[in-house]
Known about the structure:
single chain
Amino acid sequence: MAYQSRLQNGETDKLFEAVLSLHDREECYRFFEDICTIHEIQSLAQRLMVARMLKQQCTYHEIVAKTSASTATISRVKRALDYGADGYKLILDRLEKMEGPDA
Length: 103
């Protein structure tokens, strides 16, 4: 059964098509710097780091110390990992394969 997002609409489809059309990290930087604020990009990167640390069984205290994320952000990411659409799991598994398990 295919995943059906509650957010899906024509505009969101175009956004994701745009992201999928990016070829490399430089193009990602160019696009995201234009479409997002610096704070939004930093927040997204922080959430991904929080998710990685949660997957590694780090404590909230360790995550706060390393990322400066609020406990509310950590809780939100934890909830997404536990009850979300498995997007974090998909990406974290792929990153681990690309970088190796010790990265």
